[in-house]
């Protein structure tokens, strides 16, 4: 008797790229990748998304909710993918190795990004000035130099910044914390770059 391979029927096909789906609402959701429609908007900051679950994940940046906890060390995360990545730090398993330099990674996607350091590939291009980048977060940060968007606000003085590390540095001006200390004279600094600058005074 001939063996039958039964596959799930996918009657809903995209007119643009031909990709097929088993459910109509999956096709409807997929079409937004072509139309760029973003019907799900955040009530707090007005940022909009194509899919409801993306909005739900974004809302956790406001609520600080972290529903995904590590069973080993109890560290919590707002996104399941971040927990998955974190768990690999306990196992120390790095199954994805670079064939060019033998460096190993937890995820295939991270290896893919790493390979661009060898190939010099820059697939992310700014549509305004055509400057190209190896990684999408770098392009996202660069675009703010054109849009002047500053999404990171200080909750103490409301000063806003375009890059996350700038808000971290700024907060130290309020806390007066100086975590970077000189090994030679003990003088402490709020920012690592100030410590590096200071260290040169000992090298003269």
UniProtKB/TrEMBL annotation:
Pfam families: zf-C2H2. Its main location: nucleus. It is found in: Nucleus. The keyword Transcription regulation applies. Keywords: DNA-binding, Metal-binding, Nucleus, Repeat, Transcription, Transcription regulation, Zinc, Zinc-finger. The keyword Phosphoprotein does not apply. InterPro entries: Znf_C2H2_sf, Znf_C2H2_type. GO terms for molecular function: DNA-binding transcription factor activity, RNA polymerase II-specific; RNA polymerase II cis-regulatory region sequence-specific DNA binding; zinc ion binding. GO terms for cellular component: nucleus. One of its GO terms (biological process) is negative regulation of transcription by RNA polymerase II. Belongs to the krueppel C2H2-type zinc-finger protein family. This is Zinc finger protein 596. It comes from Araneus ventricosus.
